[in-house]
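Notes from hallway chat w/ T.B., transcribed later so I don't forget. T.B. wanted the structure written out for a chain they're using in a teaching module, and asked if we could keep both sequence and structure tokens in one place. Agreed to drop them here.
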Amino acid sequence: MSFRILTLNNISVRGLERLPRDRYEVASEIGHPDAVLVRSANMHAMALPPSVKAVARAGAGTNNIPVAELSRRGIPVFNAPGANANAVKELVIAGLFIAARNICAAWQYVRGLQGGDEQLDALVEQGKKKFVGYELPGRTLGVVGLGAIGVEVANTAHALGMHVLGFDPQITVQRAWQLSSGVEQALSLDDLFARCDMISVHVPLIDATRHLVNAHRLKLLKQPGAAILNFARGGIVDEVAVVQALDAGRLGSYVCDFPTAQLKDHPKVVALPHLGASTGEAEENCAIMAADTLRDFLENGNVRHSVNFPEAILPRTSGATTRLSIANVNVPNMVGQISTALAGANLNIADLLNKSRGDLAYTLIDVDGPVPQPVIEQMRGIDGVLAVRSL
């Protein structure tokens, strides 16, 4: 069985090497692709052909992908959570120092000085008083969102001597195990804002997190001079409220990865050009994870790191001839109808896994024997079935 992969951006060669050439044809222009590999290309206006079975992003965010539309077609969307975690973590830690020591403002000051060395020495001594900062040990950092990146930020800040508060009501068991025991749990977002000197956000941009940093919470900051860091998504922060807080002196600095016309020239804002995952290592890691995930789905039907479908991993059953991969809406009796179709064809189920996530469900079935095409079409005709694949 061979597969055709459409790439919409330059994908790291290290990632593409995970797709064997004898089974995968990979190109930026290819007809009837089985899957799409993408980084930042905007797919919302694309007309994806019916042949597409999956979309994988070599990165964490999926705002550039029409996830809801693909869900209705039974197409899983994969991402690469944690593959760029170290790169983003390093930039966030740099942001802490930038905010605490006024590094960028001081650098700009020096670049604007005129004169010889003696004059410069005098001006430096006169001007450095304007850039007095503070040290991180003993300061309190609030980390909102304890996924792969948030956990690394929290642990590193704790290792630097900071008191760290974390807030994530949906933290996974895996991330909880990785989190330093020295990180304290905040009772709520308001509790976190009221107790922190610096706050870093690490959540996806969804309706529930839009303007999570807002005027109400900025008023809760415990003292003037607090810093907000945003290396997640621009819309998580209400920039109008941030600028007002900066101008009023309630907020000391805003360090972010998302420049806008309103932010980029503000003297208390350091806005970087979306550098969070911009390292060679992160691009390679994301491409490798995306390619591995895509390959496992296309060849085995397993679902890992999907943003719309449940995780479903079923080891291949020894002796089973066929594996069926079925995506459907999450309603009662779907597995019963599918099993009935197989029983009607006198086919035995060797193993079965059914998982659900919200409105969607996913089923893997190993069958003792080949499944005739009419049976597959019968399954596709069941009301609520979105996609059926025979592997």
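Follow-up for T.B.: The CA atoms of residues 155 and 181 lie 9 Å apart. Might be a good example for the class.
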